[in-house]
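Example protein was shown:

_____
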Amino acid sequence: MAAIISDKIKRLFLTQIFDEATGTKIGDSDNYYYMAIGRSQTWDPSGTTDLAISPLNDEREEREFRYNVQSVKAVEAFSFVVNVKPWTANAQYAQYNDNVVGQPATSYYVRTVDNNVYVCIRTGKDAQGNIQLSTIKPDHTDTSLPVETDGYIWKYMYTISTADTNAFVTSNYMPVKFVDSAIATDPYFGQFTIQNAAVPGQIIGYRVINGGENYDSSDTITIVGNGTGAKARLLVSAGTITAVELGDSANVGQPGFESITSVMGSGYDYANVRVTSATGNDSADIVPVFAHKNGLGADAREDLRATALMFNIKPEGSVDVDDNETWATGGQDYRQVALWRNPLDSAGEKFTATAGLAMNRLTITSSIPAEYSFDVNIRMRGDSNAEAWIDYVDSDEIWYHQDEYTGFTAFRVGEPINIGEDPAAPDYSRVVDNHVVEPDVDRYSGDIFFVSNDAAQPRTTASTDDIKLVIQL
């Protein structure tokens, strides 16, 4: 049996996460989403390589991340995202088509250098129906559908705000959203206007499946369906229909003639195309291209076929271990990033602070010199065979974690420990003063929704990271 998972259900699943994170539309909106980082040790701690391992979709992968987690920070920004498709001069684009999956290689939408996003309603064509290059950058930001001098018609969708550009625009992605409300000074007021002006049941183009034979450009075309107002005309080359354009005249969309919007019609749930010809062989097969039910522009997430969410944090490198506004220790790498919902604190209550540490911590009887470098596989080992990876050292405090490599034997008060890349040949030897200092976050609590394994990402106390996590369904 053949089956598909539709983009609609993908958006539905992602919208539930989106709505939980915003605290809207979910009966229990008391959900807290964090991005977490972890794994200070190399991917092959017993070898010489540090190549990231592809994560597996199993419970063990999640458990191993929990062993390695260093810290969490509340998600600062999140948005639906789609692939970036920049407009460039002298490139060819595609008309919007309801018969393609996702974003085709030849894009039907573009982002300009002005951060404006447009959907292509009509490509420029020559007299034979051949698609031409786009040479005129669209720049209108209203509901009009001007015909550019290169023949292209672009529908303005929205302008990406400066804040969203900083949070979500990368070389691969750009944000797309639905605007619930906006006032005139809002950067997304233009999109809000487009949404409210959307016309349900429009036919926004036509697709020629079979151009037939012996047709003439003067042959008439009729749209038969339950809506009204849709009009179209033929482009014919050597008796074959090569394209069908919006409107019954080449002048449609020009000043003094019908607008492009009017000839798209409205109210169509279904339609077929009928060609009346005195000479054609009746073999032409043309189908209408429908906008989404509520109209093109009613929801840009639908129009651009968004099936991905991006989460963003920009943590600063400073560390204050005396409160719950801590992020990550400086001077140590991390190799994993995860999306974590509803972690608990060390007392078993829901963790709601802006940021926190998940590492274990102990104190020692005498300090470690400040110049000591621990940006390698530094371990500490006690005489009870307790062993751990060191994530951070600050004077007489050590933050650490244990995994299957080190084992999980607990350190004890008064236990001598050796510290170094090889504890058998230590850089320092100290004595444990207090072996249990509770972390901010219980690493074994909450739901891990996403884990990314990467190359080592360095951190210092002066770092300001820009961490973006994308869930693509």
User: Anything to note?
Assistant: Residues 7-22 form the longest helix (16 residues). Residues 24-28, 319-325 have pLDDT under 50 and may be disordered. The chain is about 10% helix and 35% strand.
